[in-house]
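Supplementary Methods. Inverse-folding protocol.

Structures were first reduced to a discrete structure-token string of length 352. This string, shown here, constituted the complete conditioning input.
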């Protein structure tokens, strides 16, 4: 019998399922708990041992090659290679996620959501479109003494409001912040980092004091080099990450994405099409880029998995940024958000 391709052999297996299987295999091999982000060689393994665990993975139905595992020596990296980045993965349409999406006729009032109590100047954190729960956990681990409030991106907590640019989103968010006197502390995650940048620019233009701007794994600024249909791009990526074949109901998709921590418990199955469209609209806005650079102090967090254009475009947008590069090597933000070293970045920027 011919050997199955990686795409065929891992069909309908989510990246998270493959990751958990690899963690289980490695835990048995090392006789200790292994996290998705542990490096095989840092744990004490060697190239001969890697061959052993590759055989165990193949016995479990995962089409892993030794060369692949040696280049990607953590369960999270190897799982993404087998699923998200499978070269022979067939294109999949996900009709359930293309359902009609309600849109708001006007902007609703923006109300930052309390995350942590505290004293002094609050930190406003602009969330990404997903992984909000993990972002809140990361903020909690920072253990600052300041209060923290989260700002959800438009369309992630309700109907998508009318907007065309990042600047229009920033105007709405800054208006909500101005109910509190400065100085201002701002942080942004993913797409939210681009909005946080534009908010900082607007506040600085009004001669308001902005503490160092903390930007965690933002996307590249400017137009995408290839893709012109962000929604199609998004759904194809979700199909690979969550092992979808296009026949799943919203309830089945919801179960998979929640299991892997993609959305928090406020997201319902019926919300999923709106969230994907919101991502597509936000991505188009981000690809138009912010209207200029920010010359204030900033802290920028990247991962080695980020495309080169991320560092290139942001070096021009925030020329005074202190850059921190993590070495997890995966697309998912989870590794950086759960990294104990991340807490030192905002604490150093803002002070305790």
């Amino acid at each position: 019998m011919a050997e199955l391709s990686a795409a065929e052999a891992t069909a309908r297996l989510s990246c998270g399922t493959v990751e958990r299987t690899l963690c289980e295999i490695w835990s048995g091999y090392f006789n200790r708990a292994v996290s998705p982000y542990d490096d095989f060689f840092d744990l004490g393994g060697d190239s001969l041992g890697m061959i052993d665990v590759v055989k165990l993975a193949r016995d479990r139905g995962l089409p892993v090659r030794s060369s692949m595992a040696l280049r990607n020596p953590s369960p999270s990296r190897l799982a993404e290679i087998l699923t998200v980045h499978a070269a022979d993965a067939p294109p999949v349409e996900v009709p359930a996620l293309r359902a009609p999406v309600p849109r708001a006729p006007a902007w609703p009032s923006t109300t930052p959501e309390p995350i942590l109590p505290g004293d002094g100047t609050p930190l406003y954190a602009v969330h990404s479109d997903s992984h909000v729960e993990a972002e809140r956990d990361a903020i909690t681990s920072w253990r600052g003494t300041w209060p923290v409030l989260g700002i959800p991106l438009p369309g992630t907590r309700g109907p998508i409001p009318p907007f065309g640019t990042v600047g229009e989103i920033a105007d709405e968010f800054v208006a909500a912040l101005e109910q509190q006197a400065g100085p201002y502390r701002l942080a942004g995650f993913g797409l939210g980092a681009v909005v946080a940048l534009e908010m900082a620019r607007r506040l600085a233009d009004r001669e308001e004091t902005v503490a160092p701007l903390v930007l965690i794994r933002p996307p590249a600024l400017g137009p995408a080099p290839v893709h012109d249909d962000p929604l199609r791009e998004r759904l194809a990526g979700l199909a690979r990450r969550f092992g979808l074949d296009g026949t799943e109901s919203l309830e089945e998709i919801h179960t998979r994405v929640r299991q892997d921590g993609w959305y928090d418990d406020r997201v319902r199955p019926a919300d999923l099409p709106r969230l994907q469209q919101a991502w597509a609209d936000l991505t188009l806005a981000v690809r138009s880029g912010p209207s200029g650079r920010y010359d204030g102090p900033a802290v920028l967090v990247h991962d080695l998995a980020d495309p080169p254009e991320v560092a290139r475009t942001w070096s021009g947008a925030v020329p005074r940024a202190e850059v921190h590069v993590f070495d997890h090597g995966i697309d998912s933000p989870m590794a950086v958000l759960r990294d104990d070293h991340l807490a030192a970045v905002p604490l150093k920027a803002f002070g305790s």
